[in-house]
Write a structure and sequence with these properties.
Blueprint lengths: L1 H21 L20 E7 L9 E5 L2 E5 L4 E5 L6 H17 L2 E7 L5 H13 L4 E4 L8 H9 L4 E4 L14 E3 L2 H21 L5 E6 L6 H20 L4 E5 L1 H6 L12 E6 L6 H12 L4 E6 L2 H14 L10 E5 L3 H8 L5 E4 L2 H16 L7 E2 L3 E3 L7 H4 L5
Parallel strand pairs: 4-5, 4-6, 6-7, 7-8, 8-15, 9-11, 9-12, 10-11, 12-13, 13-14
Antiparallel strand pairs: 1-5, 2-3, 14-16
């Protein structure tokens, strides 16, 4: 009885907060629990996958978060940020394999673009209305998702975050996260890049510029990665006695750490640019703006979309490479465009997450949450790769097309 009262109180608090922040919201229509209509232009859907065999027996295996035991044939709803890149397809691949391994079913959905917040909110509401045993969520905008989160809590549906998770969600509403530590991963990119530019900076006769292209300034995974890159680069430069200015996007300027100076006093200028929308074409325009500046020596694209934008911009400019006079380009994530650019030396290197592993761990956490077991965050890691190690087994297993 006490647990039920606490649950009701939690929901009332969250709904009240939502009404204050958003001025109320329209009621959402219930949707049937059948498969999502794949013909809708506003979303991409990975259809429900069944386990290898129907069984009432428990499925046991050794997983990344301890021994995993599915106590019944669960069904999970998973709401991703989108399918606009092969990164999300790789996450789905891992989730699909793990679902088959443990004998559960799932439905994995996501909007066409990571800018389509309203579409994702509707997908979350639909997922809650289907009454699954648990929900996986990588929120584009936590505030926009509050109503769906509150409804899930009211119905007793556990939520597990993945990728950037659900930052700022009401306490206790999201039980754990399967993700890369993006702040640390951004630092890995900075360290990899610095090896290629530190001598040039040391010998420069005037200020030099390092560009950073981020697809947005809202998603926690992107913002933490972008800030991790900036902060680590400032740290590395300061250790070598260099003064740094950070210019460009207001969010990244306001949230950076470390001592920086005005642009006119700087030895190194870190310029951060963010497009109006999340597309490769628009990130390419931002990248081209940086690449066209005479003092630019390096550029970082902080996810697959941004890194592909950097490569696209270079197709017309031809300034990236590993030579003494080339601009050093560093990417993040994988995909055929980035892998080819790293392999042929267009990009100096890149950082990969483990997207397949994120999907695998997500299913494991969902099973444990559905069992009523205690769960905790799982860091799925990130690694630097370049032309020298791209084909190594350790790296290749984390790369996708």
């Amino acid at each position: 009885m006490k647990k039920r009262l606490l649950s009701v109180l939690l929901v009332l608090v969250m709904v009240a907060s939502l009404l204050v922040a958003c001025g109320g919201s329209d009621d959402k229509k219930d949707t049937e629990a059948g498969a999502t209509d794949a013909s809708k232009e506003t979303e991409s859907v990975a259809k429900e996958t069944d386990g290898e065999k129907e069984t009432d027996k428990e499925t046991e295996a050794s997983g990344g978060n301890g021994e995993i035991v599915a106590k019944e044939k669960y069904h999970f709803e998973i709401v991703s940020k989108g399918f606009q890149s092969t990164y999300w397809q790789a996450v789905y691949k891992g989730a699909q394999a793990s679902a088959a391994k443990y004998g559960i079913t799932m439905e994995f959905v996501g909007p066409n673009s990571e800018s389509d917040i309203a579409d994702q909110v509707q997908m979350l509401n639909n997922a809650v209305n289907k009454g699954p045993h648990a929900i996986g969520l990588a929120a584009l905008d936590t505030k926009a998702a509050l109503e769906g989160i509150a409804n899930a809590v009211e119905k007793g549906i556990p939520i597990i975050g993945f990728d950037s998770g659900v930052p700022g969600a009401p306490e206790g509403s999201v039980l754990a996260n399967a993700s890369t530590d993006n702040y640390v991963a951004g630092g890995v990119a900075a360290e990899g890049m610095y090896e290629g530019i530190k001598d040039r900076i040391a010998n420069a006769s005037g200020p030099v510029r390092i560009g950073e292209v981020n697809q947005d300034a809202t998603s926690e995974s992107i913002t933490q990665r972008g800030l991790g890159f900036i902060d680590k680069m400032v740290e590395l430069l300061a250790a070598d006695g260099k003064k740094v200015a950070v210019v460009g996007n207001d969010f990244y300027i306001a949230n950076k750490k470390g001592a920086t100076v005005d642009e006119g006093e700087a030895d190194v200028i870190i310029e951060v640019r963010v497009p109006a929308q999340t597309t490769t074409e628009l990130t390419a325009i931002e990248a081209a703006t940086i690449l066209n500046k005479e003092d630019t020596i390096a550029i970082f694209g902080s996810n697959q979309t941004a890194a592909e934008g950097v490569v696209t911009a270079n197709e017309n400019l031809g300034v990236l490479g590993t030579g003494e006079d080339d601009i050093i380009g560093v990417g993040f994530d994988s995909g055929s465009v980035i892998k080819a650019a790293v392999a042929d030396g267009t990009l100096y290197g890149a950082v990969t997450q483990a997207p397949v592993r994120i999907g695998e761990v997500l299913i494991e956490l969902l099973i444990q949450a559905a069992n009523g077991e205690e769960v905790s965050n799982v860091d799925t890691g990130a690694q630097w790769y370049n032309a020298a190690n791209i084909d190594s087994p350790e790296i290749a297993q984390n790369l996708y097309d």
